[in-house]
Amino acid sequence: MRFPPALSILVLASCSGGGDTQTTTVVGGLYLQTPAIAISGVIDSPEIVVVTAWVSARDAAAPSELTPIDGADARVQIDDSAVALGAVATGAYGATSAEVSELVYRPGTTYAFVAETNGVRRGVAVDAAPEQLVAAAVTLAPQPTAAHPAVPEALLHPANTALSLTFPAQYGAYAFVSVYYADPATSDAPVLVFSDRPGTARAFEAAVASSRGRTVEVPARVFGSDGIYIVFVSAMKLGTDRFPNTDEASAILVGSSAAIAIGVDS
Fold it and tell me: Residues 212, 201, 57, 117: what is their CA dihedral angle, to the nearest 10 degrees?
């Protein structure tokens, strides 16, 4: 069973225009690694890195509105190498490590998103966290005390009970989570039942502004059915090392994820 981890965002902005009108170019992007996880009869998913960027225009007269920009030269730089991001939708650009082997996650590596529009290059960079997140570093609350009776790799969790996940500071400062339900009857097609990872440029801006911290909670309603849930918790490093011509609101989130199997058996 294979399924895509949640996608990505970065936000950069620069000013142009004259008179009483000011337009900013906004680029949003996230560089996210998701680990391999294999549980017999439940899941067999490889490690993958997913990168997505959105390039949009914003008019100062209507700052809550974003107009997608097609045809941008969008890429991600990993130390001294660069990987082009292809168009995947209107104003959206992306790539995965399944397609481009150069997309890897290495702790401490410098990552930068770059977008060029109308001959102007904008970007922002960050050094990845010094350690890659692993499941053993994540604290769960309530803390499971037993394994699922049919799937011992899964930690037993009470039905209809919220789950809190926290990781130490060396892995990042922003926590996100996605949860997939592995229905025993359709184990090859897991269902995404919860995600708080941003999926648009506006959502990314809100997430960065929220200073959400290293703890994330999965609502009780998510665990309403018996079965196995695969919880991907992501630890993200925020970067604001901006290129020239890049607005001070620009930011980038880069990070790694841990996969934790949770079982409900009521």
Answer: 100
pLDDT digits (tens, 9 = 90+) for 164-220: 999 999 999 999 999 999 876 666 668 899 999 888 888 888 888 887 899 999 999
Q: Which residues of 32-44 are buried (b: 16+ CB within 10 A; e: fewer)?
A: bbbbebebeebbe
Number of helices followed by number of strands (H, E) in the chain: 1, 21
Query: Would residue 1 count as lying in a domain?
Result: no
Q: What was the pLDDT predicted at 122?
A: 83
Torsion 64-250-201-71 (CA) sign = positive
Is residue 75 assigned to a domain?
Answer: yes
Tally of domains in the chain: 1
What pLDDT sits at residue 184? 66
Domain that holds residue 189: 10-264
Dist CA 163 CA 161 (whole Å): 7
* Domain assignment present for 74: yes
- Whether 3 maps to a domain, the answer reads no
- Determine if the pTM surpasses 0.70: yes
Strands 110-117 vs 73-78: parallel, antiparallel or unpaired: antiparallel
Tell me if 44 sits within 8 A of 56, measured CB to CB.
no
